[in-house]
Amino acid sequence: MDMITISDLEVFAYHGxxxxxxxxGQKFLISAELYMDISEAARDDDITKSLDYTSIxxxxxxxxxxxxxKLIETIADRLAKxxxxxxxxxxxxxxxxxKPWAPILMTLDTVxxxxxxxxxxxxxxxxxxxxxxxxxxKKAIALLDKEEDCKVIRVSALRNTKPVGPVIQDDFLNxxxxxxxxxxxxxxxxxxxxxxxxxxxxxxxxxxxRTIDLDILLFDDYIIQSEDLTxxxxxxxxxxxxxxxxxxxxxxxxxxxxxxxxxxxFDNQVRQCRA
Length: 275
Prior knowledge:
Strand content: 25-35%
CATH class of the largest domain: Alpha Beta
Number of helices: 8
Radius of gyration: 23 Å
Distance between the termini: 45 Å
CATH architecture of the largest domain: 2-Layer Sandwich
Shape: elongated
Largest sheet: 5 strands, antiparallel
Number of strands: 11
Structural class: alpha+beta
């Protein structure tokens, strides 16, 4: 990945835990590493296909001057996300904030904080078997896409599928989507639960009927096993209602544990069902 670097941009702004820092202000030094593909800009010698670093410097300066935060940790995090959301061609941003006048009553050069933030590629499973199933799914997708740090990229066709498990219930409408997000897996899980609650999902019966079901299937190539989150999603490699829409929108995508593509997993499951 190509990178544009801005080093030690000096900005006078009003951030800090102390009241005096917010009223009197102080100097901050900001460095940014901006990751993107600049091959097309280099080939055509066209600034519109890259990033104008003069504009970026002004955006950084304006951001620090228009906001007030207690922590330089917060400045770095919010600034990185601000730049990623503002510029579609940015894939990843690393920000370093230096505070030369940190009030610690000792001699030092600077205190600094560095963060890296990037767009994560995520695949979600979609399902509903209560009420207007398609409407619930469309509303869930719209709520995801409404989030500033989430962008829905592709949505599969929706398919009518038989329920899995011992509970007698109506057929499901299932699908999958690809999105990118700046959220962590836990933050995305919290958002999903919030959306499910908004769309009146009730979790009284395990494997039971639901207005909406959103599952994190894959998150980059992460492998996570915790009390409340497992990625890749448990047994997604055995579920046709997951594999069929995944093979539609990302047939080339490899499962991070089994190292097989979605198309290979789907075809294998179809063969097993026919055997």
